[in-house]
Design a protein that fits this description.
Blueprint (H helix, E strand, L loop, with lengths): L1 H34 L5 H5 L3 H16 L6 H5 L1 H38 L3 H32 L2 H12 L1 H11 L1 H16 L7 E4 L2 E8 L3 E6 L4 E5 L1 H5 L3 E2 L7 E9 L5 H13 L4 E13 L4 E9 L2 H22 L22 H6 L10
Antiparallel strand pairs: 1-2, 1-5, 2-3, 3-4, 6-8, 7-8
Length: 368
C-alpha cells in the first residue's frame, strides 16, 4: 500500500502545490492590476502564469522524484533527473522571456499614452521590438548552452572548442562578413534613428511604408501591398528618401501641359475651390503658377499640402482629375492641340503646286 500512496502523494502534492501557487499569483496580479489600471505591467505579467507553473512543477518533481521509491524510477533516476533539468532550463528561459516582454511592452504602452508625437512613438516602437529580439536571442543561446553543459561529453568537447576558438573565429569572421555587416547595420539603424517602423520611404524608386525591422533585413510594404525585403546594410550605404523625417507634413505638386491660351487666373480660382472641398488638404498652403513654356505648350504647376504621405497622394489625384475635367468642360481650348494640315495634291503634269498655281514654267534643270 505504501508503494502506491507514496508516489501518489509526491506527484499529486507537486501538481496540487503548483496549481495553488499559480492561482494565487494570478489572483494577486489581478487585484494589483485592478488597483493600478494606469500601469499595464501587472496585467501583462498574468501571461507568465503557464511558464511559471511549468517551472514550479518541474522544480518540485526534480527535487522529490527520488522519494517515490519506485523501482522503475530508481533504475532510471539519472535519465529522469537530466530530463527534468532540461525541462526546467527551457521553462526558465520561457518564463524569463515572458517577464522581459511584459516589462518592455508596459514601458512602451505608458510612453505611447503620454507622448503625442507620432515620430517618437514609432522610434520607441522600433527600438522596443529590436530589444525584445536581442533579449530573446540571448536567453535562447544561454539556455542552449546550459542544456549542452548538462551532458558530460559536451564538457570535453567544449575544452577542445575553446582551444581552437582563435582559428575558428578568424574563419567564421571571414565567412560571415556580410552577415556581421548587416548585424551592425541593424544596430545603427535602430539606435541611430535612421528609419523607424511606420516611416514612409522611397527605395529604388518604390514608395512604401516600413513594416518590419530586424537585425539583418528590413521589409517595406508598397502602396499596392507588395513586400520588398532588403538588407539593412542598404540603408547605411546608399541614399534613400524618408518622407517621415522632420515631420509628417508634405508638399505635393501637380503639373499640367496646356495651350498658351489657358486661363491661368481662372485655374487659380478653380484650384482654390477644389481644395476647399478636398478633405485631404490640410489648409497650410497652395499655389498655381506657370513654371515653363515651349513653342507649343506651357507648363502649369499646382502646389498643395497635406498632413502625411497618404493624404498628399489623395490631394494630388483630386486636383489633377477635377482640374482636367473642368478644363475639358469649360475651357477646351486650353488643352494642348497638335496642329495638322492637309497635304496639297500634285497636278497631273507633275509640276510643283506653287509653280502650277502661278502658271509659270517648271524650273530649268540646266540640260536644255
Amino acid at each position: 500500500m505504501e508503494n502506491v500512496l507514496r508516489p501518489l502523494t509526491v506527484l499529486g502534492g507537486a501538481v496540487l502545490l503548483t496549481l495553488v501557487l499559480g492561482w494565487g499569483v494570478d489572483v494577486l496580479l489581478r487585484r494589483v492590476d485592478g488597483r493600478h489600471p494606469e500601469t499595464p505591467l501587472w496585467g501583462l505579467l498574468r501571461r507568465c502564469r503557464l511558464p511559471l507553473q511549468v517551472v514550479l512543477l518541474t522544480a518540485l518533481l526534480r527535487g522529490t522524484f527520488h522519494e517515490t521509491r519506485w523501482r522503475i524510477i530508481e533504475d532510471r533516476q539519472d535519465g529522469i533527473g537530466r530530463a527534468l533539468t532540461l525541462v526546467l532550463i527551457g521553462a526558465g528561459a520561457w518564463l524569463m522571456v515572458r517577464i522581459v516582454s511584459a516589462a518592455v511592452e508596459s514601458t512602451y504602452a505608458r510612453y505611447a499614452t503620454s507622448t503625442r508625437d507620432p515620430a517618437r512613438i514609432r522610434r520607441v516602437r522600433t527600438q522596443v521590438t529590436m530589444i525584445m529580439r536581442i533579449v530573446t536571442a540571448v536567453v535562447v543561446v544561454v539556455a542552449i548552452a546550459a542544456i549542452l553543459l548538462t551532458f558530460p561529453d559536451m564538457r570535453a568537447v567544449g575544452t577542445s572548442v575553446l582551444a581552437s576558438a582563435g582559428i575558428i573565429g578568424v574563419v567564421a569572421g571571414v565567412a560571415a562578413q556580410p552577415t556581421l555587416g548587416n548585424l551592425f547595420a541593424g544596430f545603427q539603424i535602430v539606435f541611430g534613428d535612421m528609419v523607424r517602423i511606420g516611416d514612409t520611404v522611397v527605395v529604388d524608386g518604390e514608395w512604401g511604408v516600413v513594416e518590419e525591422i530586424t537585425l539583418t533585413f528590413l521589409a517595406v510594404r508598397t502602396w499596392d501591398e507588395r513586400r520588398i525585403t532588403m538588407p539593412v546594410s542598404y540603408f547605411t550605404s546608399r541614399p534613400f528618401e524618408n518622407w517621415s523625417r522632420g515631420g509628417v507634413q508634405m508638399t505635393g505638386t501637380v503639373f499640367f501641359q496646356l495651350d498658351h491660351s489657358a486661363p491661368v487666373p481662372l485655374m487659380r480660382e478653380r484650384l482654390r475651390e477644389i481644395l476647399k472641398e478636398c478633405a485631404a488638404w490640410d489648409g497650410r498652403d497652395w499655389s498655381l503658377a506657370v513654371t515653363d513654356t515651349t513653342p507649343s505648350t506651357i507648363e502649369v504647376r499646382a502646389v498643395v499640402t497635406a498632413k502625411d504621405a497618404d493624404d498628399i497622394w489623395t490631394a494630388r489625384c483630386a486636383v489633377r482629375e477635377q482640374m482636367l475635367a473642368w478644363l475639358s468642360e469649360r475651357h477646351p481650348y486650353a488643352l494642348p492641340r497638335i496642329s495638322t494640315a492637309t497635304a496639297a495634291a500634285l497636278p497631273r503634269n507633275g509640276a510643283h503646286p506653287s509653280v502650277a498655281a502661278e502658271g509659270a514654267a517648271p524650273p530649268r534643270t540646266g540640260r536644255g
